[in-house]
């Protein structure tokens, strides 16, 4: 990444690797759009044990997000495995620290989207995506799902919703992200990047 281009922040938590794979496909879609780039970030796990700590830099994958990553992004893709129809605690914990961005309106009129993975086909994917958009709306962001112009929505027999991309990981969470699921992630990232550029121009032209 050059550091000079606007970027879409792809912020995710992944336990078994599927959500991380989806994030990478989302980034590939963003990178198909000229004039903008993808920035992959994750969040550390949370623990009920107060003494538990995580390394400052993960052993593998994306580095941990900071508030400035969110503050300066032109668009946001939020990814999480399903947890009883809601996002995973580590991601929720990070979002709960963003009050300073809310107070300053840092994310108003920026486009956002979400993606998720679950072990079972009816394991709360759509509920998770819908609950993930709630804090984004509180921040004044503009939510963008996946339109049916992404024809994989009509062909998939596993993951994929108009509310955002999804993945069926299987009961052992070892099923790979398939062709349709990957294509939907790429399409979602590409759409978000285009919206981010357009809305960035809109914000710059606002009085």
TrEMBL record:
GO terms for cellular component: membrane. PANTHER family: FLAVODOXIN-RELATED PROTEIN WRBA-RELATED (PTHR30546), FLAVOPROTEIN-LIKE PROTEIN YCP4-RELATED (PTHR30546:SF23). The keyword Flavoprotein applies. Residues 8-193 form the Flavodoxin-like domain. This is NAD(P)H dehydrogenase (Quinone). It comes from the Bacteria. InterPro entries: Flavodoxin/NO_synth, Flavoprotein-like_sf, Flavoprotein_WrbA-like, FMN_Rdtase-like_dom. Pfam families: FMN_red (PF03358).
């Amino acid at each position: 990444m050059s550091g000079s281009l606007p970027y879409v922040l792809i912020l995710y938590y992944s336990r078994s690797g599927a959500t991380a794979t989806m994030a990478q496909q989302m980034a590939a879609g963003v990178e198909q759009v000229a004039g903008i780039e993808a920035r992959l970030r994750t969040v550390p796990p949370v623990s009920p044990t107060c003494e538990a700590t995580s390394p400052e830099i993960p052993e593998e994958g994306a580095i941990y997000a900071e508030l400035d990553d969110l503050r300066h992004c032109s668009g946001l893709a939020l990814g999480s495995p399903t947890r009883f129809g809601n996002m995973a605690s580590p991601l929720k914990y990070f979002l709960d620290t963003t009050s300073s961005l809310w107070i300053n309106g840092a994310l108003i009129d920026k486009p956002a989207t979400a993606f998720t993975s679950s072990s079972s086909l009816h394991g709360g994917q759509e509920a998770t995506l819908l609950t993930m958009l709630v804090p984004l709306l509180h921040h004044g962001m503009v939510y963008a799902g996946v339109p049916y112009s992404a024809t994989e929505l009509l062909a998939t027999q596993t993951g994929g919703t108009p509310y955002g991309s999804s993945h069926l990981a299987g009961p052992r969470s070892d099923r790979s992200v398939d062709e349709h699921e990957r294509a939907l992630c790429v399409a979602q990232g590409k759409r978000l990047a285009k919206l981010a550029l357009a809305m960035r121009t809109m914000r710059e032209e606002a009085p």
